[in-house]
# Entry
Amino acid sequence: MNRLNYHHLYYFWRVARLGNLTQAAQELHVSQSALSVQIKQLEQSMAIKLFARQGRNLVLTDMGKRVLAYADDIFNKGEELSSFLLKGVQQEKQHLSIGVLNTLSRNFIEGFITPLLNHQDVSFSLTARRMEGLLNGLIDHELDVVLTNRAISPNHQDDLWQSRLLSRQALAIVGPPSTKIDSDFPLGYEQVQWVVPSENSEIRDSFNALCARWQYKPDIKAQANDMAMLRLLARDSGALAVLPPVVVKDEIEQGILCQYQSLTDAYEHFYAITAQRKFMPDALAQLFEQVAVIP
# Structure
């Protein structure tokens, strides 16, 4: 591949960010045809297609989206350097786009973003989606990071993603204080009902393994794949629940629920997934430094 022409790359960056060739040409004070020619020269030098035509609109190709991510890093850093050289200060606020799995514990999310609330130079947005939508958001560079309690499946283990374990929470049996069972599971649990996560979840797999070990058949009253709903069921149903205590920490503090016992070697894991990129936003790198795995 030929040496990258940063002048052409800058023109591509402006067109991609504005989404309009005519407007970009006006702001750059060049003719539309000249701008189009220079972007084509960039495509030829890189041997890829950056834009596709959809009617009168230019739409980024998949490779165009990836090139745009690098261009964002390059030119945002350049603008930050210019600001520093001229003013002796860092550029204004950074913004982080955080995607969260729509079934993830809200208490965990709150704990993760708490350092950002005290950071005057960082703003952030939270977007809840299903896993597929979150990964697409990373591909399209709509999101900087994804928070999930699901590990990336083997089908997704490729050079697109970087997954890091943020923390793990020990699972516990929780329920109403008035019916607390002091003996170790399964002794004393013969007549109880349960609210549990849906099948094919890490928590449910751990609970199923525990039941199989003791040949215990649980009487499941309800199951849910959403931690917010599971929290409500644990609080209001009178049944026992299996979940990380962090999910119901407010109810435990208020005495509505209590922890009966921890489950040995059973955890829910929390992950941060990012796209494989050369640069990471400074605010995100600093945030990761403040998050430690809970042993």
